[in-house]
Amino acid sequence: METVYVVKGMTCGHCAGSVTQEISALPGVENVDVALETGKVTVRSEAALTEEQVREAVDEAGYELVGVA
Questions:
Q1: Which of 11, 24, 43, 47 sits most deeply, having the most CB atoms within 10 A of its CB?
Q2: What is the distance between the alpha carbons of residues 69 and 53, in angstroms, rounded to a whole number?
């Protein structure tokens, strides 16, 4: 399953790394790809994640989940 989210506030490689690390820790996540230019985060997972799970991970990294792209 692949879902694209929009995250606000990421401006550099460190930001992308923090978001990737937090989302990757969620159960079933196989891959996380961050596009800084667009703020889009593509998450591939074994099963669907809830938006709340992703929001909590993004919040933990210090950024804001805007929603699903």
A1: 43
A2: 16
**CB of 58 within 8 A of CB of 21?**
no
What's the CATH code, domain 2-68? 3.30.70.100
The Cα–Cα gap between 60 and 69 comes to 20
Q: What tokens were used for 60?
A: 């933990």
Q: What is the pLDDT along the chain (69 residues), one digit of tens a residue?
A: 999 999 999 999 999 999 999 999 999 999 999 999 999 999 999 999 999 999 999 999 999 999 999
User: 6 to each of 43, 46, 55, how far by Cα in Å?
Assistant: 11, 20, 10
| Per-domain boundaries in the chain | 2-68
